[in-house]
Structure formats: C-alpha cells, structure tokens
Amino acid sequence: MKVTFLGTGTSRGIPVIGCRCTVCRSGNPRNQRLRSSVLLQSQATSVVIDTSVDFRTQMLRHDIPSIDAVIFTHSHADHILGLDDVYPFSARSGKPMPVYASAETLEQIRITFRYLFAENPYPGIAEIETREIDGAFSIGDLTFEPIRIFHGSLPILGFRVGDFAYVTDVNRIPDDSLEKLAGLDCLVIDGLRHRPHPAHYSLTEATAVSRQLKPRRTYLIHMSHDVEHQEASRLLPDGVALAYDGLVLEIG
After folding, report:
1. How far, in Å, CA of 59 to CA of 39, rounded?
2. Res 88: pLDDT
3. Are the beta carbons of 227 and 193 closer than 8 angstroms?
4. Is residue 111 helix, strand or coil?
5. Can you name the CATH fold of 2-247?
6. Could you tell me whether strands 97-101 and 69-71 are parallel, antiparallel, or unpaired per DSSP bridges?
7. DSSP conformation class of 171
8. Distance between CA atoms of 4 and 26, rounded to whole angstroms?
9. Pick from 39, 75, 187, 203: most CB atoms within 10 A?
C-alpha cells in the first residue's frame, strides 16, 4: 500500500494568513503545510481520509485521476469542507462517491452540505452515497478498522489498515483503542505544537504514545506554525519524524 500525505498542517494551514512568524515566512517547503489529509492506494483501490479545505489543490498537485471512496475522521471544517470537490470524480464515473463516517459525523455533513441531500438537487453538484461506520469495513482490497479516540471531549475516529494507522486530531486514546494500535509498522499521529493543547497532542505527548506503542516508525502530522521542520526534527527520537506535504510511504 502506498500512503501519500496530501497535507500535514493544522486547521489554518501554513503559512497562516497575515502571519509574519519565522515558520510562515520560511522558504523551506516542508514548513508549508496544507490542511491534513492522506491518500491510501493499493494496486486496485484509492481512498482519501478527510476532504480538507485544500482537497481540490491536493488532487491537482498529485494528479489523482480517480478515487474509490472518502472516509472521515470527524466533522470539523478543516476535515470536511472539500467534500463538494469530489464532483469531478462522481461525474466522470457516473456513480455516487461512497462516503464513510460515524453516525454523528454523517449527521453534521448532512447539515453542512444540505444541498447535496435535497429531494431535487441543483444540477452540477457532487453525488455522494453515505455509509455509516459501525465496525470494520472494506473498500476494494483495503480493510479499515475504526479506532475510537478523543479530540478534546469529542469522540472521533482513527483508522488502522493492516500494519498502518492514521490517528489525527487526538489528545486521548482509551486503553481499548491503544490495544488495537499494537504491533504497527507505521503510526501517523497528531503532534500540533511544542506546548500542551486541550484538544491535540503536543510533540512530546505524541512521542510518548509512540514510545508506548512501539511501532517501527512514527510520523507526526497536523503541525501548527509553532513547529519549524528542521528544528523540531532535531528534537525527536530515532523512529519518530515529522511528516510533510508530499511525503510518500510504502507499507507492507
């Protein structure tokens, strides 16, 4: 399976509008972060986790001709607002785009994109088919195990696919979910900034989780402009690294 990091930034993206900090003004492309999203590709299947605000740019940047489904971790704006831009995929295939999410996330998607669910929808909009996640599920030859985690007080989903796991926007992982994340080759996990945050792991906290789970390798995502790529990378232990936009991993 190939994993492409479409975006590795927090909700405002990097650079932040109007910000003159060192990271936002950096010429290092690894400090330029679109909103967090990831593409998983097997030989037969392509799936995007979260249609970020930057979804259209991400699809064009990586020249993605088609995807088979979208999976959502939760309903916050930076993770869902690109959904309407699946239109070219559904229009070209002539089929609705399958959209997988928890019942709570699907409810919020129906509110945010209520025009997509109208009885007589306006022509020229995305056609989607919602599918509630209530356990493990398969899309083509990829099988996804949902992992219950917490984003502040909000229960959301991470996902395990074989020996790979994607756990974004998290500040607490229950014990039963930690058990489901054992034995990984690759863990991708939220690491917002150096200082603690009420709804995200800091770099130190994310590193502690990695040390507990002992995956072969760990990549941190959802970084804010408090994190300068080269400086932060020097502080991380062996086996833990900052992801960056465009990073491609081979799993298995």
Report:
1. 10
2. 96
3. yes
4. helix
5. Metallo-beta-lactamase; Chain A (3.60.15)
6. parallel
7. S
8. 23
9. 187
SS3 3: strand
This prediction has a pTM of: 0.97
User: What integer pLDDT is reported at residue 13 of this predicted model?
Assistant: 98
CB neighbourhood size of 227 (10 A): 26
Q: What is the total residue count of the chain? A: 252
- Do residues 51 and 70 make contact, with C-beta atoms less than 8 angstroms apart? yes
Evaluated on CA atoms 100, 102, 105, 107, the torsion sign reads positive
Domain ranges of the chain: 2-247
pLDDT in tens, 35-60: 999 999 999 999 999 999 999 999 99
| Contact predicate 7/37, CB 8 Å | yes
pLDDT in tens, 153-182: 999 999 999 999 999 999 999 999 999 999
Mode of pairing for the β-strands spanning 128-132 and 97-101: parallel
Q: Is 146 in a helix, a strand, or coil?
A: strand
d(CA 215, CA 157): 19
Q: From residue 234, how far is each of 190, 194, 240 by CA, in Å?
A: 18, 13, 10
Nearest to 36 by CA among 50, 23, 56, 57: 50
Distances (CA, A) of 102 to 73, 108, 166, 173, 190: 8, 10, 16, 17, 20
Chain-centroid distance, C-alpha 32: 16
- Asked if 177 contacts 198 with a C-beta cutoff of 8 angstroms, the reply is no
